[in-house]
Amino acid sequence: MESYFKTKSIFSMISKWKWHLLIITVVAAILGIVFSCPYFIHPKYKSSAVLYPANIICHSDESESEQMLEIIGSDDIMFQIIERYDLYSHYGLDSSANGSLAKMLKYYDDNVIIEKTPNDAIQITVCDEDPQMAADMVNSIIECYDHHVQYMNANKSKELLEIYTNTAKNKKHIIDSLSEIMKKYGTEYGMIDEKSQTRAYSEATAQGRGGEAANILKNWQEYGAEFKTTDSLLTNTIQRYNKDLKVCEDAKRDMTKVQTYSHVVSRPFVADKKFYPIRWIIALLSALGGFLIGVIGIAIVEGCRKPKEE
After folding, report:
1. pTM to 2 decimals?
2. Which segments of the chain have a pLDDT < 50?
3. Cα–Cα distance between 44 and 269 in angstroms, integer?
């Protein structure tokens, strides 16, 4: 019941001072409209793009989208955008002043938003007073991302090329040495193929045609194990050498190839309507604020009057 009478008292007070409250509310709304005009609050325009990762090599347990999010939000790309669009001058900052970098990072974080959508895509949003610049910055971020991924992949391919080029050279030396040994077995000992030669020379010896055949057969008996070991080692080394050459060819191709690393689903466009500030919301909030302040002020005045009257 006490709450009821308090509420009734409030409505009575509002009814009593209704014209004053109306004037305060209207003035507050007008002030909200005035101070939200471009002279006081510079309007901002928004441009955004939605893209999916493509041709990405995952380097950890992260998904392709998470890896893409990490790269786009990296400091390397951020500083490239800052330099390309001279954002220090654009935001009115002195790059030589103390704390200018912290302010720049704050402006960048406020105006460049990179996030993952519920559908596992990446959305890049840029807000700026210049609608053309907002759209250009989104396109530049995508371009820098493609170049950054290509640069990282090219560096990895270069490392692979250097490693496998050196291993291929070492294997080539081993192949040359083993080939010389195999050549020696053929020229000095007449050893070419164990199965065919052993069978043929055994038949020749049995028929009384010994001579050279008997010598080669003896060589097989004496050096056969070494010959087979050397031949097997040569064959395996050649196979591994060919695999190394294949890796080198792939690395060279990856170093020089040019491709994009994103599928752009929604491209940025130049906005023709500002998204901030929304003046009718500011006017409405100003009116409500003015009304509440008026009610509080009147309640204080009424509260001060009662003791004096009593």
Report:
1. 0.69
2. 1-5
3. 14
